[in-house]
Predict the structure of Glycine cleavage system H protein.
Amino acid sequence: MDFPPDLRYTKDHEWVRLDDDGLAVVGITDYAQSELGDIVFVELEAEGSEVEAEGALGTVEAVKTVSELFAPISGTVEALNDALDGAPETVNADPYGEGWMVKIRPADASDVDALLSAAEYKEMIGA
């Protein structure tokens, strides 16, 4: 399993990367997608929605289960990965790249620093 060291992670298996434009790119971890299995549908909050850290951000539906997606930080949803509408399996194939889910304008960018490092996340899941 892959845990890029430049990302931050949540206990709920989301990852976050701050882009140069200040947006926080969010997706689910390689561990999460492997535990879910084949992803068949992703439903996300609408662009412009205000989200609270640890609040609902959407759902990820796999063949046998539906899992909540939680906001890792508070802010405003600025963009959705519309490509997932027609190809949700992209999350399985490339969870840290093309399988990103939303971009959030952080209410406070320093909130990202409070999330888990790759090493802390790996320890949490026992990897």
Summary: The helical segments are 30-36, 83-86, 90-93, 118-125. The chain has one domain: 14-106. The chain has a mean pLDDT of 95.
